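FORM 12-B: Structure-to-Sequence Request
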């Protein structure tokens, strides 16, 4: 499943940048998809080569030194995607610069770092869930506000809506049972996102119209 997921993620990001070449308003989607791909690769490398061996060696004891730093980097990258979805909704549907989302992201990461080792394991999963809920409330709020305006939907609106719907599905599905225990189901939902967003962007490139 991993090769399929990454292959679709690369294709989605490449198509997003091709759309952004003639539709600058699509650039935030391209940045977010590119970030999602890059951060997932980095997080996977950290988990497999640093965190998992350290957990096996420490037997559940808190991380220290550079291993702890690696853990915080992995966590910040994960929270970055959550914040990125909210920022995208603010930018696309609210037409505002998402400085507030950035400020909340910085505070959230700082709290997780300062609160370690309290924030780990199950409690860390609950913190992620709270951040996910907050980001979705912001995203859906701006989506509904835009929908009520009855503005004509273009490719960047559709792509952003698909990303928000996927995050909502994650919350209702795999993340409801735990962020750390249902990653395979989450991968399936991400594949579904890419399978739907690829043709949307492909049509936009082909037609070169809104």
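FORM 12-B RESPONSE
SEQUENCE OUT:
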């Amino acid at each position: 499943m991993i090769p399929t997921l990454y292959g679709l993620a690369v294709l989605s990001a490449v198509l997003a940048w091709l759309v952004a070449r003639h539709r600058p308003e699509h650039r935030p989607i391209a940045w977010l998809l590119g970030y999602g791909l890059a951060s997932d690769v980095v997080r996977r490398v950290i988990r497999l080569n640093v965190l998992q061996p350290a957990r096996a060696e420490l037997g559940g004891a808190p991380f220290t030194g550079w291993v702890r730093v690696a853990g915080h980097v992995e966590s910040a990258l994960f929270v970055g995607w959550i914040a990125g979805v909210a920022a995208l909704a603010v930018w696309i549907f609210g037409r505002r610069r998402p400085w507030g989302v950035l400020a909340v992201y910085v505070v959230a990461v700082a709290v997780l770092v300062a609160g370690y080792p309290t924030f780990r394991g199950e409690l860390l999963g609950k913190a992620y869930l709270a951040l996910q809920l907050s980001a979705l409330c912001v995203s859906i709020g701006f989506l509904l506000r835009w929908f009520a305006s009855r503005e004509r939907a273009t490719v960047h609106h559709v792509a952003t809506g698909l990303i928000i719907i996927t995050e909502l599905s994650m919350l209702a599905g795999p993340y409801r049972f735990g962020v750390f225990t249902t990653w395979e189901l989450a991968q399936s939902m991400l594949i579904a996102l890419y399978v739907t967003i690829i043709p949307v962007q492909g049509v936009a490139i082909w037609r070169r119209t809104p």
